[in-house]
Amino acid sequence: MLMLCFVVFGACGGAPQRDLDETFARIQVEEARIEHAATARDEHDDCVMRASECDEICDATSTLCELARDSQDRDALARCERAEARCGACRAEPACEEPPS
């Protein structure tokens, strides 16, 4: 009987960690998207291209934060906060000017 309890509780205990590991793997994918877009953005002088990369940063941030909120993990939520700050800084830049007609 004791062995059965150990097996049941042991099996149940592994699932949440596996889910959290999967969540963090997905968060890392979104962090990589953010880094890639930020690097590409820094390489562009063209306002429209920079704005496009900013959209990518904020899109990845949205996905990352959704994962973090679903997990309720403190580290994941801290990563969300950092990503949101990056998106906010990107959005705070002046909008592209319309070319004169």
Structure commentary:
By secondary structure, this protein is mainly alpha-helical. The chain has 3 helices and no strands. The chain is elongated. Mean pLDDT is 86; it is low at 2-11.
The largest β sheet comes out as: none
N-end to C-end Cα span = 83 Å
Unreliable stretches (pLDDT < 50, length at least 5) are 2-11
Estimated share of beta-strand residues: under 5%
Shape: elongated
Using only C-alpha atoms, the radius of gyration works out to 20 Å
SSE string: HHH
What is the residue-averaged pLDDT? 86
Descriptive terms for the model:
mainly alpha; disordered N terminus; single chain; elongated
How would you concisely characterize the structure shown here?
By secondary structure, this protein is mainly α.
What layout of secondary structure does this protein have?
Blueprint: H1 2-43, H2 47-71, H3 74-91
Helix pairs in contact: 1-2, 2-3
